Amino acid sequence: MHYRDLIVWQKSMDLVVAIYAYTKDFPVAEQYGLTSQMRRAAISIPSNITEGSRRRGKDNRNFLIIAYGSGAELETQCEAGRRLRFGDSKKLERAESLLSEIMRMLNTMVNKET
């Protein structure tokens, strides 16, 4: 199966778009701080899904675990954004909803690769 056919990859790309939309309105002072961290964590998820899919075999599980770890980082960063009252709360809710779904999917995929 091509990585683009994976629902988890498609949703993680939607998450990237959602995180960019959410962080767009962050304070300029956060450009190299939380904004950058959140965007890097978000793009890391589909990037690692892609790399693992291309490598296949045992490596795939390792890349899924890395993608899951990036999602965990993003969970904390979203909470920081909430507590700091950055961005639009509706955009944050959209991103967190996608992230939650992606994390469940990745968890299932990692456990199947065992």
What name goes with the CATH superfamily? 23S rRNA-intervening sequence
Tell me what the CATH architecture is: Up-down Bundle
Beta-strand fraction estimate: under 5%
Spell out the helices and strands N to C.
HHHH
Helical fraction: over 70%
Shape: elongated
Give start-end ranges of low-pLDDT stretches: none
Overall pLDDT, averaged?
95
Using only C-alpha atoms, the radius of gyration works out to: 14 Å
Question: What's the end-to-end separation, in Å?
Answer: 19 Å
CATH topology: de novo design (two linked rop proteins)
Number of strands: 0
Largest sheet: none
InterPro entries: 23S_rRNA-intervening_sequence (IPR012657), 23S_rRNA_IVS_sf (IPR036583)
Pfam family, one: 23S_rRNA_IVP
Organism: Candidatus Kaiserbacteria bacterium RIFCSPHIGHO2_02_FULL_55_25
Protein name: Four helix bundle protein
Explain what the structure shows:
This is Four helix bundle protein. InterPro entries: 23S_rRNA-intervening_sequence (IPR012657), 23S_rRNA_IVS_sf (IPR036583). The chain is built from four helices and no strands. Helix 1 (about 5-25) packs antiparallel against helix 2. The chain is about 80% helix and about 0% strand. It has a single domain, classed as 23S rRNA-intervening sequence (de novo design (two linked rop proteins), Up-down Bundle), CATH 1.20.1440. It starts with 6 loop residues before the first helix and ends with a helix. It has helices at about 5-25, 35-55, 55-85, 90-110. The protein is elongated. The chain is mainly α and about 110 residues long. The longest helix has 27 residues, at about 55-85.
